[in-house]
Amino acid sequence: MNIAVFASGSGSNFQAIIDRVHSGDLPITISLLVGNNSKAKCFDRAREANIPTLHISPSHFETENEYADVLLAKLEETQVDLIVLAGYMKMLPTRLTATYRDRMINIHPSLLPLFGGHGMYGMNVHTAVKAAGVKISGVTIHAVTEIYDEGPILYQASVPVYESDTPEEIADRVLVCEHDSYWRVIKALAGKEISIENGLVRGTVRI
Ligand code: GRF
Description:
The chain is of the alpha/beta class. The chain folds into 2 domains: 1-100, Rossmann fold (3-Layer(aba) Sandwich), CATH 3.40.50; 106-207, Rossmann fold. The protein contains 6 helices and 9 strands. It has a 7-stranded mixed β-sheet, covered by helices on one side. Strands 8-9 form a two-stranded antiparallel sheet. The model has no long low-confidence stretch (mean pLDDT 97). The structure holds 5-O-phosphono-beta-D-ribofuranosylamine.
């Protein structure tokens, strides 16, 4: 399986996937990193691991269609089987989500449908978790559809939220869980233990 990872920032999830490929735990090929900010750390991580990169941003184009043309051509040329969103902060062109329907996944740092949707990214999520006073939070890995944070869920894992936690402490605990979760789901998809067919998830991720 060839995957393309889309990232905008630090790329610690991207790194966790790279590490599992290098250790032999995850038998796939990371064929491409796509990112909108070439100065972001995720690009350093790609260079370090010899992974080809595509620096592309909607702001480089006059229309969404031109943006989609370049992006889709590159993904096609690279023969990407699965798009893995890992902290990608830009809007995706509708043609991309349509073309890669059932072949694009995302990771979100809460137990969706809780703490998802508009404005729920980064520390906003963990601040809201803290304010709600819930006892658990966690990670959701879901298929990507046109509706933000609403695609079918492939996998969730929870972490405790302690009363004394700051939002930063919740974020750290969730991130550790993210790093231990994403590669397992990619492996399960590559090994066909789970599949996404017409927006429906089948199978089980075995931990
Ligand atoms: C993660 O919390 C992920 O759940 C969210 O964006 C963050 C990316 O972090 N979608 P990193 O760049 O992988 O460190």
